Amino acid sequence: MVRPDRGSQERRRRGAAARADRLRPHPQPPPRRRREVCADHAIGPARGKAAHSWPHRAEVSSRFLRTVESGDAKPGSAAARAGCGGRGPAAGRRAHPAQGDRRRCRWSGGGAGDCHRAVPPAGAAARTRPARRSGSCTGIAALGQARARGACETAGPGGSRACPWAHARFGGPRRGGGRGPWLQACARHRGGAASARPVPREAASLRRFAASGKRRTGGLREARLQLQASLDLATAALATDAADVCIIAEGCYPFVRGGVSAWIDWLMREEKDLTFEVVTIWPSETDLQSRYEFPPNMRRRHHLALHSPAPRPRFFARKPFDPSALAEALITFTSGGTLAELAVVDRIINPPGRQLSRAQIMNSPAAWEVARLMYERMMPQASFLHFFWAWRAIYGGLFAALKFELPKARLYHTISTGYAGLLAARASIETARPAVLTEHGIYTNERRIEILMADWIADTIEKGLALHDPRYDLRDMWTQAFEAYAKVCYEASEDIVTLYADNQILQRAMGADPARLKVIANGLDFGKFAGIGRAADDARPTIALIGRVVPIKDVKTFIMAAALLREDVKELRALVLGPTEEDPDYFKECEALAAQLGLGGCLEFTGNVHIIDWLPEIHVVALTSLSEAQPLVLLEAGAAGLPCVTTNVGSCAEVLNGRPDEEPACGPGGLVTDVVAPRDIARALKTLLLEPDLRRRYGGALQSRVKSIYANERAVKAYRELYERCRTMPSRRPIAATGE
Fold it and tell me: What structural domains does the chain harbor?
């Protein structure tokens, strides 16, 4: 006979006891007794039942609303008891019958000095303004009311704004870590200098906290009602703290020097009376250092990384969104590119009353389902692996722009279409504030060139040299997305500004409204360059390419032109003035080409320089770019009286030769060649170097044109008028999502 195992017997005995215990009726714990307070100590209306169980404001401040003023009254203290006009000399003192029923107000938890006033009868409205405490700053109404008794003698930041000292900080931990949103207090109550501007956080965290019904620190179950009452106060404080203009820049300021970055820095410094915030869009998180000292009227810089490291995948109890609805919305938007279609995507990604995380949008089973549905609709003939990673790259940037926390501003000014234009369109939808676009170059065309030349995009269809093949491929997917971003940016912009008229042909072809198109040419400080001396005729012949050492500047063509020119111009000196670290591989290729052509004693890479220090040594400026808008370097050289040789891209020919309707006609300011034409460029440089009279005549003509057309005052006046008109526009009606 096998004896039973003692462990098995014990486990069976414990299991039977647990089952019996679950079947046994258990007494329910007694309900939590609410502390009833009188009308003076109630936080909000009674709404047909006993007054809220919140204690006196002094207790609220010590438990939840931690004020910055030292010596706050504590519950039961003499200072706290002084706040209630109904305090009694001893505990248990009963209220007068005329004041309601005889239940005693228990605001301080019992003990001597309790309020003896009666609790309001059921259904009576409680007083929403707490009793005034001695020694308190009453410059703003407590708990979001219109006005408290008295006024704070110290004005808040900005002059007329009241001091919300009692709401200086919503203390206590919140979900996700961190503290509550900051509001602005006057210099006396925030403990800092009056010139120090506190930074308010978004009202969204306050709204999420107010919407939550969970118990908070101190057991205050009515916290959400209190915070909801204070939400208007927070929103008003943030609205008054909005910047005048939010500039949205992609891939330039402040990490890249020159070009568009220099233009942004110039614009903010010229508009001294306006406050700016800048959103920098970059492919990923970066530790690059700023190349510019920020102007004093730039309040903050925000960084938007399109492809941050993805959070750890998680599995969720329920789908965060409807995958089929998001897939359909993305396909519709990228094929149409309208504001209403973007509003549908935005509504799914940012649903009212909910907060979707990046992990839910990109790494959840619902996100996988979206990618699968879009693959079946768009490219079923292609490899799903290639489609999936292209999908993450394209729509990951779109989701990043839609989840980015928008800075508060009265006007959103984007410096291109693309992701910057997408963010401006979203701001126009969500804030109902106007957006404007200044397009230096046609962003969509530049992306088309990159996409066609990219070797990291897999070709799933062999199209050969066909220009119009209806079959859809990954390159079409990329191009279509950027075209949709451009269309939605054009539709959202009140004004579509470009630097020269030829750009408007392409903008109209992309759907821009002709009535909104404007031309504002770049401006520069003419007097800063006009006094620079010119190189002597008998000095060493010097040519210079001023710009970054990157492929789009086609520095290799300049190097080959210098090698050809050295055969005819003895002692030639060729300079490349610009930063070399932006594309290290391309810079090494340029150095190798110069060494191969034997230009060691002729060609010099100077790196980043102060251009004014080098212009007096230069005879002719060369520009060999593959793509440009309105190069600032041509205007700077022209203001200094230097002729130029440039490729026929962007507005280069217009700057050198003038518009057909130019009055008075200044004449040519240089020579224009085709792109990637080193022999033509060398021939043009030789003509200007060997003919001093022609060089001086061309330099003088370009200097006159820059002074009359591209002077700083004209551009500053145009943007000042544009900003003033758009900033003061009333908020327009919200954009309705398609189907609403």
Answer: 34-130 (no CATH), 140-148+163-241 (no CATH), 532-710 (3.40.50.2000)
